[in-house]
Amino acid sequence: MSAPIRRHPRNLKAGPFQPVIGSFKLHLRAEGKSPKTVATYVEATQWFAAAYLVAKTDRKQWAEVTADDVKSWLVFLQEERGYADGYANNQYRALQQFFKWYSEDEEVPNVMARMKPPKVGEKVVPVFTAEELSSLSKTCKGKSFVERRDQAIIELFKATGIRLFEMAAVIYAPDDPERNDIDLDHRELRVHGKGRKERTVKFSHDAARAIDRYLRVRATHRYAHSPKLWLGVNNRIPMTPNGIYQMIARRGQECGVVVHPHKFRHHFSHTWLDRGGNEGDLMELNGWVSPQMVRRYGASARNARARRTYDRIMSEE
User: Fold this and answer.
1) pTM of the model
2) Is residue 278 classed exposed, middle or buried when 0-12, 13-18 and 19+ CB atoms within 10 A define those classes?
3) pLDDT tens-digit profile of 79-119?
4) Which tens digits make up the pLDDT trace of 46-61?
5) Overall fold of domain 130-304
6) Where are the domains of the chain?
7) What top-level class would CATH report for the domain 15-106?
């Protein structure tokens, strides 16, 4: 779930509603949800409880909350706080998960059972131009450890569109085939996705060459024995998701390209569909279980095809 720029500080003091939120957090962890998903759902529920239930109503327990309370909160976010409809939709879905769990656990009616999420306006998904990708790659040209590492990460992002936390979790254990995630010969990568689900994706020859070049300098690193593929500069410990994010942002600043890790996912999905790739195959490669994201990226690809067709259709004879 993506978040907008925060215009206001958040009040997360949920008061009498906090104990149940703690139980919800325990449930999410037991279900194997990713740390990011747990944090997102819990924070959304805390914010609703603190900024609306505690601050604006006389509710004292979750059993007193109604569907109108949720609706009023969503209206408040959009009309008074100015958050985008997409963000309100994300908040809705987090609360939807909470009330679904609460109703089942407490055996009470689900107050959101008949509610519909806020409508989200369709927006063009941002993707890279060929020139931007070329400029980004040029910032990593060289033989040093950091240049080869960064080039390999960028090429793998380009070739697979995997998520940031999935990139950080790649395991390199050449002596242990059961654990090793990278297969350069077959250009395949085992990805540890959301909900502890694994999938295997392909990557390009360019990505394979970049990874191979990185592995040769990685062998001299102080932490070369680490199972984590991506190691820090100056013989430091393996990279975290935040470290990879900062590296990508820094490379973008060096060449004047607006870039963040998730933009590679946008670009991969857009390119796949724009070139006629199968939607079901894209869902498998991206680890999606819902066709909602396919429809979003499909709209972007359709727009690109329409613009390319314009000159052929509208050209003067």
Assistant:
1) 0.69
2) exposed
3) 777 787 788 889 999 999 999 999 999 999 999 999 988 87
4) 999 999 999 999 999 9
5) hpI Integrase; Chain A (1.10.443)
6) 15-106, 130-304
7) mainly alpha
